[in-house]
Amino acid sequence: MSGRLKIAITRERREDEPRVAATPETVSKLLRTGEGVEVCVERGAGASAGILDSEYEEAGASVLAEPAEVLDGAAVQFTVRAPPDEAIPHLPREAVLVGMLDPYRLNGLLETWAGAGLTTFSLELLPRVTRAQAMDVLSSQSNLAGYKAVIDAAAEFERAMPLMMTAAGTVPPARVLVMGAGVAGLQAIATARRLGAIVTATDVRPAAREQVESLGATFVGIESPEAENAETEGGYAREMSEGYRRRQSELFASELKRQDIVIGTALVPGRPAPRLIDASMVTTMRKGSVIVDLAAEHGGNCELSRPGERVTAHGVTILAHRNVPGRLAASASALYARNLLAFLTPLIDDGELRFDWDDEILAATVLTRDGAVVHPRFRSPPSGEAAGNA
Predict the structure, then answer these.
(1) Tens of pLDDT along 309-368?
(2) Is residue 101 located within the same domain as residue 177?
(3) 363-367 contacts: CB < 8 A, separation 24 or more?
(4) Is 133 among the catalytic positions?
(5) Domain containing 22: what range?
(6) Residue 314 shares a structural domain with residue 353
(7) pLDDT tens digits along 179-198
(8) Candidate list 54, 133, 254, 380, residue with the active-site label
(9) Can you give the pTM of this predicted structure?
(10) Residue among 128, 194, 245, 247 flagged as catalytic
(11) 354 in catalytic set
(12) Catalytic residue selected from 236, 238, 244, 275
C-alpha cells in the first residue's frame, strides 16, 4: 500500500441511518497524517447530517458521484454500519473496513468479507482501556442516546418536569426511573436532573451506585452475592440468574407505580436485552406516563415495545425509536468520525498502514484478516468440533 493511502467514505444505505463516518474536520486531520494520504467521499454522504459536499471539498476531499468510484483503489473504508453485499466487490483485496459492524448479527457476512480478503475492525468490541477512550464508539453514541431519550420523554410527557411554585399552586416535579447505569443511563440521569426531575436509577452492578449518587439520583438495587460478580472484565453487565431476575421484577413492580417516566438502557453484549418491564407492570403505571426503550432494537427492556413504533397501552406511551443516536445525526457523526480518526491515526506510518497484531486494541476488534475469520468469539469451530458457549 506504499505511495498512496486512499480512505473512502460512502453514503450509508440503511433508511434509518443518517450518520456519516467522516466530517470535514476529520477529513482535514486525516490528510495531515502523512504523504500520499487521500480522502474520497461519495456525493451526498453527509447530507442527512447537515454536511454539504462543498464542505468536504474545502477540507481537501474528493467528492465523487458513484460509490464504485469512491471505493476503487481504497486502502481503507470508513463506515457507520456494515456495508451492503454489493459494495464488497468494489473494495480491493487487503482493504481495511472500519466501523460499527454489529458482528453478533452479521449472519454469514464475516465469511464473505474473509473470502474477499478484507481486514475488518468492529469498534463496538474495543477493550475498556484508557488508550481506547478516544476511539470508544459505544460511549460517544450512547451518551447522545441517553440525552435524547430524556428529551423525547419530556416532549411526550404532558406535565412539567421541574418543581414549579406559583401563585396558583405548586406543580410537583416529575419522577424518572433509569434502568441501567451505563453510559446512556448516566447521561439520562444527568439530563433528567438538569430538567428538574426526581431521578431514581437501578443497575445489577453495585459499583454503579457511586456514579448514580454522584449525579444526584437515588440508587435502588438487589442486595445479593450474585450482584458482586455482575460486571464483566470489560465493564458490562452480565446476564443474571432466574432467581435474581425474579427479585428484580418484584422491585421494579413496586417502583414503576411511583414513576412518571422510565428510561430503559439495559443491554447484555451478544444477547437479547433483558426484559425488565412486563405487560402487567405497565398496567400499574400512572396514566400519562412515558417509557422510552433504548434497547428496543435488541429485544427491548419493555415487553410492549415495538421497534420503530410509538405504542400507547393502558394510558402509557411507549417509545421505541430505532437508531436513537441518529436522531441527533450532526452531533453523532461529529463524535463518531473522531472515534474513527483516533483508531486509524496510530496505524498510519509514513503514508502506509502498519499493524501490530499483538496490540490489545487491534486484537480485540479485528474480525477478519488474511482470508479468515480470526476473532475467537465469531470464528466457526473446526469441522466435527462442537461449539461451546459464547
Answers:
(1) 999 999 999 999 999 999 999 999 999 999 999 999 999 998 899 999 999 999 999 999
(2) no
(3) 364/125, 364/126, 364/127, 365/121, 365/122, 365/123, 365/125, 365/126, 366/119, 366/120, 366/121, 367/101, 367/103, 367/110, 367/113, 367/120, 367/121, 367/122
(4) yes
(5) 5-135+328-373
(6) no
(7) 999 999 999 999 999 999 99
(8) 133
(9) 0.91
(10) 128
(11) no
(12) 236
